[in-house]
Design brief:
It contains eleven helices and 17 strands. It is an alpha/beta fold and 353 residues long. It folds into two domains: 270 residues, Spore Coat Polysaccharide Biosynthesis Protein SpsA, Chain A (Alpha-Beta Complex), CATH 3.90.550.10; 74 residues, no CATH class. The longest helix has 17 residues. The radius of gyration is 21 Å and the shape is globular.
Protein backbone atom coordinates (compact mmCIF):
# COMPACT_ATOMS: atom_id res chain seq x y z
CA UNK A 1 0.00 0.00 0.00
CA UNK A 2 1.05 3.57 -0.69
CA UNK A 3 0.63 6.29 1.93
CA UNK A 4 0.22 10.03 1.32
CA UNK A 5 0.86 12.26 4.33
CA UNK A 6 -0.45 15.77 3.73
CA UNK A 7 1.58 18.51 5.37
CA UNK A 8 -0.04 21.69 4.13
CA UNK A 9 -2.00 24.34 5.98
CA UNK A 10 -0.94 27.18 8.23
CA UNK A 11 -2.60 26.20 11.51
CA UNK A 12 -3.60 29.56 12.96
CA UNK A 13 -5.43 27.88 15.86
CA UNK A 14 -1.96 26.98 17.21
CA UNK A 15 -0.66 30.53 16.89
CA UNK A 16 1.77 31.95 18.02
CA UNK A 17 3.74 28.69 17.72
CA UNK A 18 2.38 27.97 14.25
CA UNK A 19 3.09 30.70 11.67
CA UNK A 20 2.82 31.06 7.90
CA UNK A 21 6.53 30.47 7.46
CA UNK A 22 6.69 27.65 10.00
CA UNK A 23 3.31 25.90 10.34
CA UNK A 24 2.40 23.58 13.20
CA UNK A 25 3.26 20.36 11.37
CA UNK A 26 6.94 21.34 11.30
CA UNK A 27 7.15 22.35 14.97
CA UNK A 28 8.15 20.21 17.95
CA UNK A 29 4.79 20.31 19.71
CA UNK A 30 4.79 16.82 21.24
CA UNK A 31 8.43 16.22 22.15
CA UNK A 32 11.68 16.32 20.21
CA UNK A 33 10.14 15.70 16.77
CA UNK A 34 7.68 17.60 14.63
CA UNK A 35 4.18 16.20 14.16
CA UNK A 36 5.15 15.52 10.52
CA UNK A 37 8.09 13.39 11.64
CA UNK A 38 5.87 11.60 14.16
CA UNK A 39 3.28 10.92 11.46
CA UNK A 40 5.91 9.13 9.38
CA UNK A 41 7.42 7.34 12.39
CA UNK A 42 4.11 5.75 13.37
CA UNK A 43 3.89 4.11 9.94
CA UNK A 44 7.17 2.32 10.44
CA UNK A 45 8.16 -0.52 10.33
CA UNK A 46 4.99 -1.73 8.54
CA UNK A 47 5.44 0.61 5.59
CA UNK A 48 8.68 1.31 3.73
CA UNK A 49 9.94 4.84 3.16
CA UNK A 50 9.65 4.11 -0.58
CA UNK A 51 5.86 3.73 -0.15
CA UNK A 52 5.38 6.98 1.77
CA UNK A 53 4.64 10.22 -0.11
CA UNK A 54 4.59 13.74 1.32
CA UNK A 55 2.27 16.38 -0.15
CA UNK A 56 2.82 19.99 0.88
CA UNK A 57 3.28 23.52 -0.41
CA UNK A 58 6.29 24.36 -2.55
CA UNK A 59 7.38 27.02 -0.04
CA UNK A 60 8.02 24.25 2.53
CA UNK A 61 10.23 22.13 0.27
CA UNK A 62 13.45 22.83 2.16
CA UNK A 63 12.08 22.08 5.63
CA UNK A 64 10.27 18.83 4.68
CA UNK A 65 13.35 17.48 2.92
CA UNK A 66 15.44 18.33 5.99
CA UNK A 67 13.00 16.70 8.41
CA UNK A 68 12.44 13.57 6.30
CA UNK A 69 15.78 12.72 4.64
CA UNK A 70 14.86 9.04 4.17
CA UNK A 71 11.83 9.74 1.99
CA UNK A 72 12.85 9.32 -1.68
CA UNK A 73 13.15 12.62 -3.57
CA UNK A 74 10.52 11.57 -6.12
CA UNK A 75 7.98 10.93 -3.34
CA UNK A 76 7.59 14.61 -2.49
CA UNK A 77 4.61 16.33 -4.10
CA UNK A 78 4.99 20.11 -3.96
CA UNK A 79 1.90 22.20 -4.67
CA UNK A 80 2.75 25.63 -6.16
CA UNK A 81 -0.38 27.27 -4.68
CA UNK A 82 -2.98 26.67 -1.97
CA UNK A 83 -6.10 25.24 -3.65
CA UNK A 84 -7.76 23.38 -0.73
CA UNK A 85 -7.93 19.64 -0.12
CA UNK A 86 -9.94 18.61 -3.19
CA UNK A 87 -7.25 19.52 -5.75
CA UNK A 88 -4.47 18.37 -3.38
CA UNK A 89 -5.93 14.87 -3.06
CA UNK A 90 -6.67 14.68 -6.76
CA UNK A 91 -3.11 15.72 -7.59
CA UNK A 92 -1.60 13.12 -5.25
CA UNK A 93 -3.77 10.38 -6.73
CA UNK A 94 -2.78 11.43 -10.24
CA UNK A 95 0.92 11.24 -9.38
CA UNK A 96 0.68 7.79 -7.75
CA UNK A 97 -1.85 6.54 -10.28
CA UNK A 98 0.58 6.86 -13.17
CA UNK A 99 2.49 3.80 -11.92
CA UNK A 100 0.12 2.27 -9.36
CA UNK A 101 -3.47 2.85 -10.58
CA UNK A 102 -4.98 -0.10 -8.70
CA UNK A 103 -2.80 -0.02 -5.59
CA UNK A 104 -4.51 0.84 -2.29
CA UNK A 105 -3.53 4.36 -1.19
CA UNK A 106 -4.08 5.76 2.30
CA UNK A 107 -4.65 9.49 2.78
CA UNK A 108 -3.33 10.74 6.15
CA UNK A 109 -2.55 14.09 7.81
CA UNK A 110 0.61 15.33 9.47
CA UNK A 111 -0.76 17.41 12.35
CA UNK A 112 -2.50 14.65 14.31
CA UNK A 113 -1.65 12.70 17.46
CA UNK A 114 -2.24 8.93 17.66
CA UNK A 115 -1.64 7.18 20.98
CA UNK A 116 -2.46 3.62 19.85
CA UNK A 117 0.02 3.34 17.00
CA UNK A 118 -0.10 -0.45 16.66
CA UNK A 119 -3.90 -0.39 16.44
CA UNK A 120 -3.65 2.44 13.92
CA UNK A 121 -1.40 0.39 11.63
CA UNK A 122 -3.64 -2.64 12.08
CA UNK A 123 -6.68 -0.66 10.92
CA UNK A 124 -4.74 0.64 7.91
CA UNK A 125 -3.97 -2.95 6.93
CA UNK A 126 -7.64 -3.94 7.32
CA UNK A 127 -8.64 -1.07 5.03
CA UNK A 128 -5.91 -2.09 2.59
CA UNK A 129 -7.26 -5.65 2.46
CA UNK A 130 -10.81 -4.41 1.83
CA UNK A 131 -9.68 -2.22 -1.06
CA UNK A 132 -7.65 -5.08 -2.55
CA UNK A 133 -10.84 -7.18 -2.49
CA UNK A 134 -12.74 -4.43 -4.30
CA UNK A 135 -10.77 -1.82 -6.25
CA UNK A 136 -13.92 0.28 -6.63
CA UNK A 137 -14.23 1.13 -2.96
CA UNK A 138 -13.34 3.80 -0.44
CA UNK A 139 -12.84 2.98 3.26
CA UNK A 140 -13.29 5.82 5.75
CA UNK A 141 -11.44 5.43 9.06
CA UNK A 142 -13.25 6.99 12.02
CA UNK A 143 -12.18 7.54 15.62
CA UNK A 144 -14.66 6.40 18.25
CA UNK A 145 -15.83 9.59 19.95
CA UNK A 146 -14.62 10.31 23.48
CA UNK A 147 -16.74 13.41 24.06
CA UNK A 148 -19.19 15.71 22.26
CA UNK A 149 -16.66 17.56 20.12
CA UNK A 150 -18.08 20.51 18.16
CA UNK A 151 -14.84 21.36 16.37
CA UNK A 152 -14.54 18.18 14.31
CA UNK A 153 -16.37 16.54 11.46
CA UNK A 154 -18.37 13.40 12.29
CA UNK A 155 -19.16 10.26 10.29
CA UNK A 156 -22.61 8.68 10.53
CA UNK A 157 -22.52 4.97 9.75
CA UNK A 158 -25.21 2.33 9.36
CA UNK A 159 -25.45 -1.41 9.74
CA UNK A 160 -22.47 -3.67 10.29
CA UNK A 161 -21.33 -5.24 7.02
CA UNK A 162 -18.75 -7.67 8.33
CA UNK A 163 -16.13 -8.23 11.02
CA UNK A 164 -12.44 -8.99 10.52
CA UNK A 165 -10.63 -10.30 13.60
CA UNK A 166 -12.59 -8.08 15.96
CA UNK A 167 -12.68 -5.02 13.72
CA UNK A 168 -16.16 -4.14 12.43
CA UNK A 169 -16.89 -2.59 9.04
CA UNK A 170 -20.07 -0.52 8.64
CA UNK A 171 -22.20 1.00 5.92
CA UNK A 172 -21.56 4.68 5.28
CA UNK A 173 -24.42 7.14 5.66
CA UNK A 174 -23.15 10.72 5.65
CA UNK A 175 -20.67 13.31 6.97
CA UNK A 176 -21.56 16.10 9.39
CA UNK A 177 -19.12 19.00 9.65
CA UNK A 178 -18.77 20.80 13.01
CA UNK A 179 -22.19 20.07 14.57
CA UNK A 180 -23.83 22.11 17.30
CA UNK A 181 -23.19 21.04 20.88
CA UNK A 182 -26.69 19.58 21.06
CA UNK A 183 -26.07 17.53 17.91
CA UNK A 184 -22.64 16.38 19.12
CA UNK A 185 -24.10 15.22 22.43
CA UNK A 186 -26.76 13.27 20.53
CA UNK A 187 -24.12 11.71 18.27
CA UNK A 188 -22.09 10.65 21.30
CA UNK A 189 -25.05 8.83 22.80
CA UNK A 190 -26.22 7.24 19.52
CA UNK A 191 -23.19 4.94 19.04
CA UNK A 192 -23.42 5.03 15.24
CA UNK A 193 -21.29 8.15 14.84
CA UNK A 194 -17.52 8.59 14.93
CA UNK A 195 -15.13 11.52 14.67
CA UNK A 196 -13.81 12.05 11.17
CA UNK A 197 -9.99 12.37 11.12
CA UNK A 198 -10.06 12.69 7.32
CA UNK A 199 -8.34 9.31 6.85
CA UNK A 200 -9.39 7.00 4.03
CA UNK A 201 -8.06 4.25 1.78
CA UNK A 202 -8.95 3.79 -1.90
CA UNK A 203 -7.25 3.37 -5.29
CA UNK A 204 -6.12 6.14 -7.65
CA UNK A 205 -8.10 4.73 -10.56
CA UNK A 206 -11.36 4.62 -8.62
CA UNK A 207 -11.00 8.01 -6.94
CA UNK A 208 -9.99 9.75 -10.17
CA UNK A 209 -13.09 8.24 -11.80
CA UNK A 210 -15.15 9.96 -9.09
CA UNK A 211 -13.37 13.26 -9.78
CA UNK A 212 -14.20 12.83 -13.48
CA UNK A 213 -17.86 12.21 -12.62
CA UNK A 214 -18.47 14.84 -9.95
CA UNK A 215 -15.76 17.48 -10.58
CA UNK A 216 -15.02 17.21 -14.32
CA UNK A 217 -13.29 20.59 -14.67
CA UNK A 218 -11.05 19.82 -11.72
CA UNK A 219 -10.32 16.34 -13.10
CA UNK A 220 -9.49 17.77 -16.52
CA UNK A 221 -7.05 20.24 -15.00
CA UNK A 222 -5.36 17.64 -12.79
CA UNK A 223 -4.92 15.17 -15.63
CA UNK A 224 -3.41 17.86 -17.88
CA UNK A 225 -0.46 18.24 -15.49
CA UNK A 226 2.38 16.26 -17.01
CA UNK A 227 5.53 17.92 -15.62
CA UNK A 228 6.78 20.72 -13.35
CA UNK A 229 6.14 23.36 -16.01
CA UNK A 230 2.47 22.51 -16.47
CA UNK A 231 2.12 22.04 -12.70
CA UNK A 232 3.23 25.66 -12.14
CA UNK A 233 0.82 26.93 -14.80
CA UNK A 234 -2.26 24.75 -14.23
CA UNK A 235 -2.41 24.02 -10.50
CA UNK A 236 -2.95 27.66 -9.38
CA UNK A 237 -5.98 27.85 -11.71
CA UNK A 238 -7.78 24.83 -10.19
CA UNK A 239 -11.00 25.42 -8.29
CA UNK A 240 -10.60 25.88 -4.54
CA UNK A 241 -12.84 23.18 -3.10
CA UNK A 242 -12.72 20.77 -0.17
CA UNK A 243 -12.52 17.04 -0.81
CA UNK A 244 -15.77 16.52 1.07
CA UNK A 245 -17.64 19.02 -1.13
CA UNK A 246 -16.06 17.76 -4.34
CA UNK A 247 -16.42 14.00 -3.80
CA UNK A 248 -17.60 12.57 -0.47
CA UNK A 249 -20.91 14.45 -0.37
CA UNK A 250 -21.76 13.18 -3.88
CA UNK A 251 -20.30 9.66 -4.10
CA UNK A 252 -22.69 6.70 -4.21
CA UNK A 253 -22.84 5.25 -0.68
CA UNK A 254 -22.52 1.71 -2.03
CA UNK A 255 -18.84 2.35 -2.75
CA UNK A 256 -18.04 3.60 0.76
CA UNK A 257 -17.54 1.68 4.02
CA UNK A 258 -16.52 2.79 7.49
CA UNK A 259 -14.11 1.38 10.06
CA UNK A 260 -14.83 3.03 13.42
CA UNK A 261 -12.10 2.20 15.94
CA UNK A 262 -10.40 3.61 19.01
CA UNK A 263 -7.02 4.77 17.73
CA UNK A 264 -6.28 7.19 20.54
CA UNK A 265 -6.52 9.85 17.83
CA UNK A 266 -6.60 13.59 18.44
CA UNK A 267 -6.51 16.59 16.16
CA UNK A 268 -3.77 18.69 17.72
CA UNK A 269 -4.50 21.57 15.37
CA UNK A 270 -5.75 23.73 18.24
CA UNK A 271 -4.47 24.35 21.76
CA UNK A 272 -7.54 22.97 23.55
CA UNK A 273 -7.39 19.81 21.41
CA UNK A 274 -3.71 19.42 22.25
CA UNK A 275 -4.52 19.66 25.95
CA UNK A 276 -7.21 16.98 25.62
CA UNK A 277 -4.72 14.72 23.82
CA UNK A 278 -2.02 15.08 26.47
CA UNK A 279 -3.99 15.20 29.71
CA UNK A 280 -4.69 12.11 31.81
CA UNK A 281 -7.73 13.69 33.43
CA UNK A 282 -9.78 16.65 32.28
CA UNK A 283 -9.00 19.15 35.03
CA UNK A 284 -5.23 18.71 35.23
CA UNK A 285 -2.64 21.24 34.12
CA UNK A 286 -0.55 20.48 31.02
CA UNK A 287 2.77 22.30 30.85
CA UNK A 288 5.92 22.46 28.75
CA UNK A 289 9.21 24.23 29.49
CA UNK A 290 10.00 26.42 32.51
CA UNK A 291 6.60 26.65 34.21
CA UNK A 292 5.43 26.84 37.83
CA UNK A 293 1.68 27.06 38.49
CA UNK A 294 0.11 26.83 41.93
CA UNK A 295 -3.51 26.54 43.08
CA UNK A 296 -4.58 26.19 39.45
CA UNK A 297 -6.52 23.68 37.36
CA UNK A 298 -7.39 22.80 33.77
CA UNK A 299 -4.73 24.99 32.16
CA UNK A 300 -2.28 24.56 29.30
CA UNK A 301 0.94 26.54 29.73
CA UNK A 302 3.63 26.06 27.07
CA UNK A 303 6.85 28.01 27.39
CA UNK A 304 9.27 27.95 24.45
CA UNK A 305 11.75 30.40 26.01
CA UNK A 306 14.30 30.38 28.85
CA UNK A 307 12.17 32.79 30.85
CA UNK A 308 10.24 31.29 33.78
CA UNK A 309 6.42 31.45 33.70
CA UNK A 310 4.70 31.53 37.10
CA UNK A 311 0.93 31.26 37.47
CA UNK A 312 -1.32 31.41 40.54
CA UNK A 313 -5.08 30.75 40.78
CA UNK A 314 -5.46 30.06 37.06
CA UNK A 315 -8.41 28.11 35.69
CA UNK A 316 -9.17 27.03 32.12
CA UNK A 317 -6.42 29.26 30.71
CA UNK A 318 -4.01 28.99 27.80
CA UNK A 319 -0.62 30.64 28.13
CA UNK A 320 1.76 30.27 25.17
CA UNK A 321 5.12 32.01 25.38
CA UNK A 322 7.40 32.27 22.32
CA UNK A 323 10.40 34.50 21.66
CA UNK A 324 8.29 37.32 20.22
CA UNK A 325 4.67 36.73 21.33
CA UNK A 326 2.89 35.82 24.56
CA UNK A 327 -0.67 34.56 24.13
CA UNK A 328 -2.99 34.55 27.16
CA UNK A 329 -6.63 33.57 26.76
CA UNK A 330 -9.41 31.41 28.11
CA UNK A 331 -9.42 27.81 26.88
CA UNK A 332 -12.83 28.38 25.31
CA UNK A 333 -11.57 31.38 23.32
CA UNK A 334 -9.42 29.38 20.90
CA UNK A 335 -11.77 30.01 17.92
CA UNK A 336 -11.03 33.74 18.31
CA UNK A 337 -7.28 33.23 17.74
CA UNK A 338 -7.70 32.76 13.99
CA UNK A 339 -9.71 35.98 13.71
CA UNK A 340 -7.11 37.87 15.71
CA UNK A 341 -4.28 36.64 13.50
CA UNK A 342 -6.22 37.67 10.40
CA UNK A 343 -6.55 41.19 11.83
CA UNK A 344 -2.75 41.43 12.19
CA UNK A 345 -2.35 41.32 8.40
CA UNK A 346 -1.51 44.69 6.82
CA UNK A 347 -0.47 46.05 10.22
CA UNK A 348 3.00 46.61 11.76
CA UNK A 349 2.58 43.17 13.39
CA UNK A 350 2.00 41.26 10.15
CA UNK A 351 5.42 39.61 10.43
CA UNK A 352 4.14 37.75 13.49
CA UNK A 353 1.49 35.88 11.50
Amino acid sequence: MKIVVFAGGVGTRLWPLSRKNSPKQFEKILGDKSTLQLAVDRLRPDFAFEDIYIATGKKYEKIVRQQLPKIPAQNFIFEPAIRDVGPAVGMAMSVIGKEHPNSPVAILWSDHFVKKERRFREVLHFAEDLVRENNSSLILIGQRARFANQNLGWIEFGQEIREIRGTKIFEFKKLIYRPTLEQAERFLEADNFAWNPGYFVTTPKFLLSQFKKFAPDLHRGIMSIKDKKTLEVVYPTLEKISFDNAILEKIDQKYVSVIAADLGWSDVGAWEALKEALEKQSNENVTKGKVIINDSSDNLVFNYTDQLIVGIDLEKMLVINTDDVILVCNKNSVPKIKKLVEKLENTPHEHLT
